[in-house]
Hints:
- The chain is an alpha/beta fold.
- The chain folds into 3 domains: 4-186, Rossmann fold (3-Layer(aba) Sandwich); 188-271, Helicase, Ruva Protein, domain 3; 276-340, Orthogonal Bundle (Arc Repressor Mutant, subunit A).
- The protein is built from 16 helices and 9 strands.
- The protein has helices at residues 4-13, 22-35, 51-60, 79-87, 103-107, 123-135, 161-167, 172-178, 192-210, 219-227, 233-246, 255-258, 284-287, 294-312, 317-324, 328-339, and strands spanning 41-44, 69-73, 112-116, 137-138, 147-148, 152-157, 181-184, 216-217, 252-253.
- The longest helix has 19 residues, at 192-210.
- The radius of gyration is 24 Å and the shape is globular.
- The chain starts with a helix and ends with a helix.
- Magnesium ion binds at residues 51-52, 116.
Amino acid sequence: MQPSSLTSxxxxxxxDIVGExxxxxxxxxxxxxxxxxxxxxxxxxxxxxxxxxxxRAAHRASTRRGRAFIPVNCAAIPETLLESELFGxxxxxxxxxxxxxxxxxMSANEGTIFLDEIxxxxxxxxxxxxxVLEERTVCPVGADTEVPVDVRVIAATHxxxxxxxxxxxxxxxxxxxxxxxxxxxxxxxxxxxxxIQIAELCVARVRDRIGRNVEGLDECAKAALVAYxxxxxxxxxxxxxxxxxxxxxxxRLSAADLxxxxxxxxFARGTERxxxxxxxxxxxxxxxxxxLDLRAALENLERDLIDRALAKAxxxxxxxAALLGLNRTTLVEKLRKYAA
Length: 340
Ligand SMILES: Nc1ncnc2c1ncn2[C@@H]1O[C@H](COP(=O)(O)OP(=O)(O)OP(=O)(O)O)[C@@H](O)[C@H]1O
Ligand SMILES: [Mg+2]
């Protein structure tokens, strides 16, 4: 049982973080304990385990909540642009710098900067970042004066920074400055109860969004979810459930409806309401070859299924809706959306 102070803190600042497993609750308690202070937090955890979610909760629960939360993905910025992205530049600092730019630290002034994938920061940039954290001033590229900044720093990485320090790829002094409060997020595979809770919540959310008649998961589906290793953690689980609900052919999802990687994709088995679609489950990569955008891929798939159902029903919307397991109004709404 969580202490009531954590329960009310969660509902106020971290309502989007689902799960009751001890390791998750411990991470939440740490965030709750230090959120109001200005200390630096280092969040570690596998991809998709909720690092950004926790960082945002820490910001919301701090005195800086009305100010900016600026996420910076250190792995996504080319090395040559890092310094000006982070610290800004003056007009004419380099070719193409036609106007002065404030940089992410200045944009986060009085708020929180979230330095995501900090383990991917090159050594030269690490040295500059350390200086900023120690001096609490930034020097925009090309400028000769330092500008004071008032930012709370939350950093995150999926890498093992201690190992990187031992290998000489991450500065020890920067590591100690960042890891004032270390928070380690548990992998989803290690919290079976959370898997089910998050999956059920995702089913309800997707169902309500797309108007599909899906009640939940049967026992066999739950067992299959718990048995899988979830290398992509909560993000992977949410995407898998979204897809399963979209393709659902019966009100209660079974293991066969889930297309869990490595488990046989047999979703097309069972009562066929739409005989045209008896092919094996499309693999994620075949849904769209151009994009990894899940929403776009699912929309393409949805359009395709609607087209096929309409063709099969000879254009009769009531019949097509029945084939798709939708009510007629939902189908008409979708057709309107796709026609726009
Ligand atoms: N405990 C949780 N409860 C509900 N949703 C969660 C939880 N953890 C993560 N999520 C969801 O999973 C997705 C991934 O979370 P987030 O972006 O915070 O992960 P991350 O650790 O930053 O991942 P990455 O390393 O890939 O950047 C988001 O959609 C987030 O809302
Ligand atoms: Mg992230």
